[in-house]
Known about the structure:
Blueprint: H1 2-12, H2 16-24, H3 29-46, H4 48-51, H5 54-81, H6 91-100, H7 117-139, H8 145-169
Helix pairs in contact: 2-6, 2-7, 3-5, 3-6, 5-6, 5-8, 6-7, 7-8
Amino acid sequence: MQSYINRIVRAAKLDVNLYEEVEADKGAMGQAMGVVVLSSIAAGIGSIGTIGAKGIIIGAVTALIAWYVWAYITYFVGAKILPEPQTKADHGELLRTIGFSSSPGLIRVLAIIPGLTGIIFLITSIWMLIAMVIAVRQALDYQSTLRAIGVCIIGWVIQAIILMILFAVLGGGYSKPI
């Protein structure tokens, strides 16, 4: 358990060696998934004042789906469309590194403190984005941080489009009461 907590802390500290470590450790998939779930639960607790307790469960399920989709899109874009000559990666490597890039999200639990919700979510979102770029750069063996940023942006846009389409198809739009 101590090594798991240590990994979470190192990921939040943006330790490049941690991302290399979990990229190579096929046994870390459960840990990466755990970080995603814990981070989404922290976000749900932090936003109880605005969305209620249902956000914890909905957030955890949504986070797991988004994590998987994001990692697959990132793998496809980064390893198949925009690889560097030394890029060698598989979907699992991206799932593990991106999962650990959710580590800063654990701090979102502090957003339950009245008046701090917005600033906590802003800070952790930026922190998680930086961790994601590092995770992608390491998993895809990129020399260029700019390429990793580009892959993250492209992946985010594709994921946003997919989620908007799913939201529209599944009836997630707003409707006025009759």
